[in-house]
Amino acid sequence: MSGVDMIVSSNKAGAVGLTGVIGWLGIARRERVTMAG
Which residues cross the membrane (predicted)? Predict the structure, then answer.
């Protein structure tokens, strides 16, 4: 059980990290468009 829990938790952390990176890239793009505006 502990091994499975570790895998699940690591997968959740990876998903959260990817979401954060994608969100940050989206914000950066918006800022660039606004600055070029």
Answer: 6-27
C-alpha span between 19 and 26 (Å, rounded): 10
Structure tokens at 17: 């990290």
> What is the distance between the alpha carbons of residues 22 and 16, in angstroms, rounded to a whole number?
10
For residue range 1-37, what is the model confidence (pLDDT) as tens digits?
688 898 888 889 888 988 999 999 998 888 887 776 5
Q: How many angstroms from the chain centroid is the CA of residue 17? A: 4
